[in-house]
């Protein structure tokens, strides 16, 4: 994976602040799916907010959050009624244990190499029961959203102590192929000097995405272009996909 954001405890503490717009349209989409499934795996769960919401909404089944960043899971573990696991799909050994696997927050895009993606999708298929669903989203490359990230993801927020934290996003250009590399610089009193996080995300078009899912034995059953379930078009901002393990 090529994403090193929020591995620092101070940055992990900022994650929910930086992603706290209410209501979150992606959570509103995924939460009913989670509530209708008995056993759920959240891959790239971060601080665990989505699973926290499900438990608060009355989910009584198995909820498991998986993330490779210890600092993020440390915050998630403030809610002990959910199973939190440090690692990646490649390090897990689930076998037909889940009715639903979900990846929110565009976490799917961190699989930048074909072998990483193949391994992840195989791990997801193996973890699903026959008929189980995999729900996730990836940004639509056709709309070239990264060209607006310098404005969308640069801001000032206040941390828990009230201190002002400044974030500046910069995309490395020129962008070629299906990978976008960017840096996020964090400046604030918690650090003696600015903290720079460098990440790469992969933008797959719908046909390539379909081919990868099919190769892993996953079948697309629903696909949308935005969180209101509008159809996927070339101008849609998202490629929101629900796939099943048929057998």
Q: Look at the structure and give the CATH class of the largest domain.
A: Alpha Beta
Low-confidence stretches: none
Strand content: 25-35%
Number of helices: 7
- Largest sheet, described in full? 7 strands, mixed
Topology-level CATH name of the largest domain: Rossmann fold
Count of individual beta strands: 11
Describe the protein.
The structure is a single chain. The protein is an alpha/beta fold and 247 residues long. The protein has two domains: 9-141 and 203-244, Vaccinia Virus protein VP39 (Rossmann fold, 3-Layer(aba) Sandwich); 143-201. The chain has seven helices and eleven strands. A seven-stranded mixed β-sheet has the order 3-2-1-4-5-11-10, with helices on both faces. Strands 6-7-8-9 form a four-stranded antiparallel β-sheet. Helix 2 (25-35) packs across helix 3 (49-56). The mean pLDDT is 92.
């Amino acid at each position: 994976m090529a994403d090193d954001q929020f591995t620092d405890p101070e940055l992990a503490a900022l994650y929910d602040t930086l992603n706290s717009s209410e209501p979150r349209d992606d959570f509103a989409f995924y939460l009913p799916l989670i509530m209708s499934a008995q056993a759920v795996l959240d891959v790239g769960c971060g601080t665990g907010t989505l699973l926290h919401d499900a438990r608060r909404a009355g989910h009584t089944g198995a909820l498991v959050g998986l993330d490779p960043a210890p600092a993020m899971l440390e915050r998630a573990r403030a809610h002990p009624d959910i199973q939190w696991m440090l690692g990646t799909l490649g390090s897990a050994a689930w076998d037909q244990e889940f009715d639903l696997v979900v990846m929110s927050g565009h976490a799917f895009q961190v699989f930048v190499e074909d072998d990483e993606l193949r391994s992840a999708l195989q791990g997801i298929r193996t973890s699903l029961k026959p008929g189980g669903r995999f729900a996730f989203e990836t940004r639509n490359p056709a709309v070239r959203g990264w060209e607006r990230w310098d404005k969308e993801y640069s801001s000032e927020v206040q941390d828990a102590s009230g201190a002002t934290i400044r974030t500046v996003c910069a995309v490395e250009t020129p962008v070629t192929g299906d990978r976008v590399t960017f840096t996020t610089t964090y400046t604030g009193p918690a650090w003696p000097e600015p903290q720079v996080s460098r990440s790469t995300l992969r933008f797959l078009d719908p046909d390539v995405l379909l081919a990868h899912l099919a190769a892993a034995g996953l079948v697309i059953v629903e696909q949308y272009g935005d969180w209101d379930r509008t159809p996927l078009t070339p101008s849609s901002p998202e490629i929101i996909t629900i796939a099943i393990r048929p057998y």
